[in-house]
Amino acid sequence: MRPYNKKLKQSSRDLRKNMTDAEQLLWQRIRRKQILGLQFYRQKPILNFIVDFYCPAASLVIECDGGQHYTKLGLEADQNRDHTLSELGLVTLRFTNHQILTELDVVVEQIYYVVRQRLESI
């Protein structure tokens, strides 16, 4: 189990109840062990972050990024977050909400490919 801040538990629950359209759409394709029989979690607290999706078996984080992620501050914050998570051995995949909404099959194929690669290297 990855370390997390217990104070984020309620925020994580709130985020699960209020997922974006892109998050909901992607969740329908990765939940219930649909990718190589692996469990994904949504809105999972890790350290002081809440990641959109997390697959512990593949040490994989998936982020669905809206417009706020593409500002100067947003890009810096994401870069710092990704670096911190990588120090735990986690790989972060980022997709724009637009990608998920318009190219869902391509996004799922990329997740499948990365998960397969990660399992082979672990």
Automatic annotation (TrEMBL):
UniProt keyword annotation of Hydrolase present: yes
Matching Gene3D superfamilies: VSR Endonuclease
UniProt superkingdom: Bacteria
GO molecular-function term, one example from the UniProt record: endonuclease activity
Keywords associated with the record: Endonuclease, Hydrolase, Nuclease
Domain DUF559 positions: 7-115
Pfam families, A to Z: DUF559
InterPro entries: DUF559, Endonuclease_DUF559_bact, Restrct_endonuc-II-like
UniProt xrefs under PANTHER family: BLL0828 PROTEIN
Protein name as it appears in the record: Endonuclease domain-containing protein
Organism (species): Acinetobacter genomosp. 15BJ
